[in-house]
Automatic annotation (TrEMBL):
<keyword id="KW-0472">Membrane</keyword>
<feature type="transmembrane region" description="Helical">
    <location>
        <begin position="424"/>
        <end position="442"/>
    </location>
</feature>
<protein>
    <recommendedName>
        <fullName>CorA-like transporter domain-containing protein</fullName>
    </recommendedName>
</protein>
<feature type="transmembrane region" description="Helical">
    <location>
        <begin position="385"/>
        <end position="404"/>
    </location>
</feature>
<dbReference type="Pfam" id="PF26616">
    <property type="entry name" value="CorA-like"/>
</dbReference>
<keyword id="KW-0812">Transmembrane</keyword>
<feature type="domain" description="CorA-like transporter">
    <location>
        <begin position="17"/>
        <end position="235"/>
    </location>
</feature>
<dbReference type="InterPro" id="IPR058257">
    <property type="entry name" value="CorA-like_dom"/>
</dbReference>
<keyword id="KW-1133">Transmembrane helix</keyword>
Length: 500
């Protein structure tokens, strides 16, 4: 039967929801039984490494002779805690932790993307009957991640601390979750086992945690200031209306806007973490030393003065970030104005080009209208000629035929007779042959002209049977016009080139 998680308060705690959440996240939070690696430090004496539930059970059954610290690291920054679910349940049960500690554990474990970045805070629960005082808090610190392919060399890491204060504090227990191996906190944890040093008190251990959460923030803010400088410089030196065009490296682009937004998001996140750390530290100090809430410096001990110095460092970093955010907002507005000005200039050029094309189209329409009017007049003239020809052609033919005396008409005794000369058949044969030759020559010349025009259109990409191609309509039209200089003048061709 699994160990109970913690002694729930029946009236105040939702034990069913806490247990359900624990069961749902256990595979993400904890490693298997073969990967357990947990350190147990008896401060000022020795340390042990628990690699199984049995070893942890044996260590916890022995009465500690002073302050004991349980260290639960992660496999890596987004990895599982190096403790199994039964071991975590055993630890919570033996220490009788209160629910806020279990809730803070859910901020760790395997992740595929950033999550729980806004989680943090302080909780405390005194118990006068059993003379114990529980505290739990989650803080965040700044560390270098060592991944050279990222622009930002820093990462925001988090750690959680549970403190079970017993009586006078000589037999207190701490649980430190995820003290990063590269941080000052991990180094101080190793020093706790050194018997040659003075044995630290519980207050000193809390000061170590507070110091770890307040370090490297100035470097982190300075990196943001350095990252903001190139964007500021580019926005200040750009000249959109200059007659001499600037290189592309001096022009504000959407990529610069994106970088600025990413930088602002990082600064907003850092501001939240700084405020959360400061609030958590002040709440912890107020719980450790009630006199910390007093504004009188004479009431502060050395430890309290150290805490005030840490909170002052955090406030200073907050002020710097607020200043950088104000500057970045001004740069963002300037970049937006520059890009808007550029867009308006481009739109103005496009409008001018469209106007020129419209004028040319209007001129083309006028030309086509004039050509249509001339064609209509020519058609009317041809129609008149055709009608007149049809009217006079039969009479002219008869007149010509009779004038050649191939046909003679005689009257005898009231009877009319028509006589054809023998040469008549020669006239008929020659006329038919010449007519056929004339129609043949006309048809041949017309067919040749059609083939020539078809080759010209096909070379321009125009197929009269399939229609005009969609992909290269402007190119085809320009190619066709280049072969027909008598249709469009140089001004039309230049305007078509601008329109592209």
């Amino acid at each position: 039967m699994p160990k109970p998680l913690c002694p729930f308060n029946t009236w105040l705690d939702d034990d069913e929801a806490i247990t359900s959440h624990w069961d749902a996240d256990s595979r993400r939070l904890f490693v298997g039984n073969n990967d357990i690696r947990m350190r147990v430090i008896d401060v000022g004496r020795e340390y042990h490494v628990a690699r199984s539930e049995e070893q942890l059970q044996k260590l916890m059954e022995g009465s500690p002779l002073g302050i004991r610290v349980f260290i639960v690291p992660q496999e890596f920054s987004w990895g599982s805690l190096t403790i199994s679910e039964p071991c975590a349940r055993l630890l919570a049960s033996q220490l009788q932790t209160f629910p806020p500690f279990l809730q803070n554990l859910h901020a760790f474990g395997q992740r595929a993307e950033p999550s729980n970045e806004t989680l943090g805070g302080f909780s405390a629960q005194p118990c006068q009957v059993f003379q114990r005082h529980e505290r739990v808090y989650l803080l965040k610190c700044i560390e270098k991640h060592g991944r050279e392919y990222l622009d930002n060399p820093y990462s925001i890491r988090q750690f959680a601390v549970y403190h079970d204060a017993q009586g006078d504090g000589s037999n207190d227990s701490f649980v430190v979750v995820n003290p990063s191996a590269s941080s000052m906190l991990s180094q101080k944890m190793k020093m706790l086992q050194n018997a040659d040093l003075d044995i630290p008190s519980s207050e000193t251990i809390h000061l170590i945690m507070i110091s770890a959460a307040s370090q490297n923030w100035d470097d982190y803010v300075s990196w943001h200031e350095q990252a903001l400088y190139p964007l500021t410089n580019k926005a200040h030196v750009v000249q959109e209306n200059s007659d001499n065009p600037q290189p592309s490296s001096f022009q504000v682009t959407t990529l610069d806007m994106q970088r600025l937004q990413i930088l602002q998001n990082s600064m907003h996140q850092a501001l939240h973490v700084l405020d959360m750390n400061r609030t958590t530290i002040e709440s912890l100090a107020g719980d450790l030393w009630p006199s910390f809430r007093s504004d009188s410096p004479s009431m502060n001990t050395f430890n309290q003065s150290r805490v005030r110095r840490c909170t002052a460092d955090l406030k200073g970093a907050q002020r710097r970030l607020n200043t950088l955010l104000g500057r970045s907002d001004a740069i963002s507005k300037l970049m937006q104005n520059i890009m808007s000005t550029r867009s308006l200039a481009t739109l103005d050029e496009s409008s001018k080009t469209t106007t020129e094309l419209a004028k040319l189209a209007q001129e083309d329409n006028k030309l086509m209208l004039s050509m249509a009017a001339e064609g209509r007049r020519d058609s009317r003239t041809l129609k008149t000629i055709t009608v007149l020809t049809l009217a006079y052609l039969p009479a002219s033919f008869v007149s010509t035929l009779l004038g050649m005396e191939y046909i003679s008409i005689k009257s005898s005794d009231g009877h009319w007779s028509m006589h054809f000369k023998p040469e008549m058949w020669i006239f008929a044969v020659l006329s038919v042959i010449l007519l056929l030759v004339t129609f043949g020559l006309w048809h041949g010349l017309d067919l040749r002209k059609r083939h020539q025009e078809g080759d010209t259109l096909r070379s321009a990409g125009i197929d009269l049977e399939k229609g005009w191609p969609k992909a290269s309509r402007m190119d085809s039209w320009q190619s066709y016009l280049s072969r027909r200089p008598n249709v469009v003048d140089e001004k039309h061709a230049a305007t078509i080139q601008i329109g592209r």
